[in-house]
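Task card 7
Instruction: Convert sequence to structure tokens.
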Amino acid sequence: MIGNITNLFRVPEIRRRLGITLGFLLLYRIGWNIPIPGVDLDVVRAIAGGDDEGNAFTALFSVISGGGLYSCALFSLGIMPYISASIIFSLLTKVVPALEAVAKEGASGQRKINQWTRLATVPLAMMQAIILVANIYKQPYGGGPPLLPDGFMLTLGAILTLTAGTVFLMWVGEQITEYGVGNGISLLIMAGIIARVPEAIVRLVQTQQGGFLPFTLLVLFLLIVVVVVFITKGTRKIPVQYAKLTRGRRVYGGQKHFLPIKVNQAGVMPVIFASALLSFPQLLGSALNWKWLGDAFLPTAWWYTTMTIVLIFFFSYFWNSLMFNPVEMAKNMKESGSFIPGIRPGKKTAEFLQSVMTRITLAGATFLALIAIIPQQAATMISKEVPITVAYFLGGTSILIVVSVALDLVDKLNSALLMRNQGGFMGGSAAAKKKGR
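Output:
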């Protein structure tokens, strides 16, 4: 394993990309230790040392955004406004003909939509910052003083600081995606979750000294990790046959390959999108003081659970419809002289691929819904025995995000190494394999 890791640093380009990624992640963690100007650090320390940091909503919000509402730091909002803006434009490109036409322009059109997404992130971040400051930072904590003292300039400074922190995180995520390794936004969310895991484990051990609950949670944690890895790596292999071509005395083609389609083609994005969308009613209810709306969309409410399942299925099919075009794939197969045995090229091939993708997406969406809902309900049940933050950070959504992003990162490192004849990251170097033959 040590030899496989050293392979990553033998290639200058991979070494540079890893250095850029680690540098930006370090910068992200440094921002977590920069407090908002004017915040009462004594109250922040009291919250950090207690077991009742917020509620189920704030705990789940911290998981899916990579931030922390009660941390009162530069990056407290996390990357949630950017995710929300991405969801909005992803939906608009399907329903607004003008945006759909821009999206079909190729790379130039995608750059325009990305720019509009960045611009939309700013007002969304400012709106969420205003709600956060007014409903959390300005409210007394535990009967004591609020996190942020009264004062117009302090309030304005906190709003602008939180907005600037989110915009900076958006830039960091894009830089990691372009110049580093992996998807920058997903890596930031994963880094925020992993950074809290040691504290969650310490709290769990402290509150359950001598009990069997920590051991039970550890077993469930490992079981969920195995299931997530198994489903994430699972594929449906469709056989593809290349037609034989005769040129003189030579025969070309005739090889048989497989077209792999992942069971969980959408990855973790439907869960993140669904959670991000359902956070808006909570924030809106808190801003307008509509308690009924906030209670209806608490993570412990049945309505929230139902909407989560519906949105996960919706975004799974929506995401796959964006990323998988069976008509274009069937056209490319026909032009390259390949076909699926037993299926006529062209329209029949496109219909077959569409039916396979529909069934595969159903299985993947069911898996995502189960892995997001069942551990969440279990966390709610055991939250009376352990802190709610511990329950959610060891829950299914956190594990799903961390494992999915880690597997995607390993796949990208494997691809980079194989392109340079270094063997896979998990499978030893090419020189070692050649020597053993």
